[in-house]
Amino acid sequence: MNTTPRSERLHIAIFGKRNAGKSSLINAITNQPIAIVSPTPGTTTDPVYKSMEILPLGPVVLVDTAGIDDVGELGKLRVEKTLEVLNRTDIAILVVSEIDDLNFEKQLIKLFREKKVPSIGVLNKIDLDKDYKEKLSYLQSTLGIKFLPVSCATLKGIEELKNEIARSVPDVGEDLRIVGDLINPGDFVVLVVPIDKAAPKGRLILPQQQTIRDILDSDAIAIVTKEYELKETLENLGKKPAIVVTDSQAFLKVDADTPPDIPMTSFSILFARYKGDLFEFVEGVKKIKNLKPSDTVLIAEACTHHRQSDDIGTVKIPRWIRQIAGFDINFEWVSGYGYKKDLSKYALIVHCGGCMITRREMLYRIELAKSYGVPITNYGIMIAYVHGVLPRALKPFGIEFKY
Q1: pLDDT tens-place string over residues 184-213
Q2: What is the C-alpha to C-alpha distance for residues 32 and 52, in angstroms, rounded to an integer?
């Protein structure tokens, strides 16, 4: 992987009415013709994502959205897509060029506040208006957020906007790590990576890559092996590893071949904590025993991929849940950004590790499930639960679990 994954980048989304200059602003920030610009209203239809490196921000994703005032049946769908972007937005930029009617802007700011998304206002096209300072004052007093004057045509105010974005980067409140807080400099960390028909040709999957990087950032040593070589690897190390991390589908063999005094967990459980809420997922897996024959379980994946004959999401997890329940269960599936808005029909949600979405979006999905009273768990926790190794897999995090 040569670039920072989109899921690890700061997401900066541009909102506003049609023809406010949202696409022009993206082009001005990047100093490149990234987005199509046209005087025709509604040029931007679906959200457009562009990964960039922008100083002083570093790796970011700029999101161009359709106008919040789009009309008609198709326009309504475009607006829905625009509002969905907020669930993965770290910083929102509201672009305004006309101040005659600010009702749409007021609605957006209300949503920014409800979702606790930091926001910045931009008064665009100041090169066409000598009295823009009066507009600026009016916008700030009426809408209640800071506005910066900008001209996308002349690039005036763009550097000031970039600096304001940098100052607005949300503080997550803690240094989130995948495994780094569980190890010390110089520690050995053994990663068990099965190479089977589900493994992508010629590369490792994203959670494995990111875990290796986190280990190196912690000044520790990553040792990568396959499940059938694990026992020999441990015997030949000459030093006890701080932890063994396995692909969830190799849990049983890795559990058997890893001595009891060596901590063990999975990539998916590490990501349950890194991207979401580990405690919520653990509580969710306990609800499997409460399922009834008429219940429907939602299986959610954050990415789309070619499914194998024994796919984890569509074949294995449904089979395991039916075995635990002792009767047939209804299942539905969703993948990518197309997450369900109404979760009232589901008795349980089983989500993937979430490596392809931002932490903000995963937390949104968890909170949405909680608002409907629907338990939610994670692939890795589910698999460890099925195989009877969840107590051991949770021990590195200080969580006790009893069946």
Answers
A1: 999 999 999 998 655 667 678 888 999 999
A2: 11
Helix ranges, 237-355 (H): 251-257, 267-275, 278-285, 317-325
- The neighbour count for residue 321, using CB atoms within 10 Å, is 20
Nearest to 250 by CA among 233, 230, 236: 230
**Cα–Cα distance measured from residue 179 to residue 335, given in angstroms and rounded to the nearest whole number:** 26
Alpha carbon 59 to its chain's center: 15
pLDDT tens digits for range 237-282:
989 999 999 999 899 999 999 999 999 999 999 999 999 999 999 9
Q: Does the reported pTM lie above 0.90?
A: no
Strands (E) across 85-237 are located at 91-96, 119-123, 147-149, 188-192, 221-225
**Could you tell me which of 179, 397, 165, 387 has the C-alpha nearest to residue 281?**
397
211/288 same-domain check: no
Report the number of distinct structural domains present in the chain.
Answer: 3
| Distance of alpha carbon 198 from alpha carbon 177, whole angstroms | 27
Q: What share of the chain is helix, strand, coil (3-state, %, to 5)?
A: 40, 20, 40
Report if residue 402 sits inside a domain.
no
Burial class (CB in 10 A: 0-12, 13-18, 19+), 152: buried
Domain membership of residue 74 as a residue range: 6-168
